[in-house]
Amino acid sequence: MAEIGNVNRFPDEKKIFSYAGLVPSVHKSGDKVYYGHITKQGSKYLRWILVECARIHVRKCDSKITEFYRKLKRKGKHENVAIIGAARKLLQTIYYMLKKGESFHS
Asked: What is the rounded CA–CA span in Å between residue 7 and residue 99?
């Protein structure tokens, strides 16, 4: 909450993903698009805590976030890439929880 502040300042989930630096860098050349590493722009503290929470969550809980992490691992993604995906899903869940005033349901 301290790093996000008022959630209503983000019109959609993509803006908060960008704020946390959990979006891929994009390189375009002509009609080709290349996606690279995460941008790491934005709040480093929010990104750090989301990644650490995602690491713990996928080890201790059985939820949709954990299933998403396992799906990425099955596709052959590196563990760190899968964790970033889980952190993004976790931020998506937090965003909608704050928007709707709900509590977490695994």
From this structure: 7
Q: Which residues contact 85 (CB under 8 A, 6 or more apart)?
A: 68, 69, 72, 77
* Residue 1 located in a structural domain: no
Domain count, the chain: 1
Domain housing 74: 10-100
pLDDT digits (tens, 9 = 90+) for 21-30: 999 899 999 9
Please report the DSSP string for 19-78 in residue order: HHT-SEEEEEETTEEEEEEE---S-HHHHHHHHHHHHHHHHH--SHHHHHHHHHHHTT--
Q: What is the residue type of 8?
A: N
Query: Residues 30-45: pLDDT tens digits?
Result: 999 998 898 888 899 9
- For residue 96, being part of any structural domain is answered with yes
The answer as to whether 75 is a domain residue is yes
Give a yes or no: residue 46 inside a domain. yes
Ranges of residues in the chain whose predicted pLDDT is under 70: 106
